Amino acid sequence: MEIVTSWMEKGLKEGFERGREQGLEQGLQQGQARGMELGLLQGRHGEAASLVKSLLTRRFGELGQVCAQIKELCLEQLEQLAVDLLDFSDVADLERWLTSHVTTDI
Q1: How many Cβ atoms sit within 10 Å of the Cβ of residue 51?
Q2: What mean pLDDT value characterizes the chain?
Q3: Is the pLDDT of residue 42 over 60?
Q4: Whole-angstrom Cα distance, residue 10 to residue 6?
Q5: Structural domains counted in the chain
Q6: Does 41 fall in a domain?
Q7: How many CA atoms lie within 13 A of 39 on its CB side?
Q8: For the whole model, what pTM was predicted?
Q9: 1 within a domain of the structure (yes/no)
Q10: Is residue 27 in a domain?
């Protein structure tokens, strides 16, 4: 049989509270760091999509539906498109590129 004294109960309660506070603080710090990472990634994606669309619009004029497809590309695809668009002669080249680089889940 184990005897639990009032000072043991108090110590357990205080230890639990301190552990909980430290855990919450650590969780908050990790959440903030992850939020910043995601925010930076979204910012990079938005800027890359905007730059690619601007370059293509300047080169070929209005792009119509193609703009929606470009916005859906991941960051790596946008970066590749930014390089490859230098070789495009017309919008058909862009459409072929999108067809070959974008997969649809149906």
Answers
A1: 13
A2: 87
A3: yes
A4: 6
A5: 1
A6: yes
A7: 6
A8: 0.66
A9: no
A10: yes
Buried-exposed string 67-104: b where 16+ CB fall within 10 A, e elsewhere: eeebeebeeebbeebeeebeebeebeebeebbeeeeee
Look up the domain containing 26 and give its range.
6-101
Three-state SS for the chain is: CCCCCHHHHHHHHHHHHHHHHHHHHHHHHHHHHHHHHHHHHHHHHHHHHHHHHHHHHHHHCCCCCHHHHHHCCCHHHHHHHHHHHHHCCCHHHHHHHHHHHCCCCC
Q: Rg for the chain (alpha carbons), in Å?
A: 27
Question: In this predicted model, what pLDDT tens digit does every residue of 79-91 receive, in sequence order?
Answer: 999 999 999 999 9
3-state secondary structure of 25: helix
Q: Per residue in 52-67, pLDDT tens?
A: 999 999 999 998 888 8
Q: Which residues contact 88 (CB under 8 A, 6 or more apart)?
A: 59, 60, 94, 97
CA 78 to chain centre: 14
Domain assignment present for residue 30? The answer is: yes
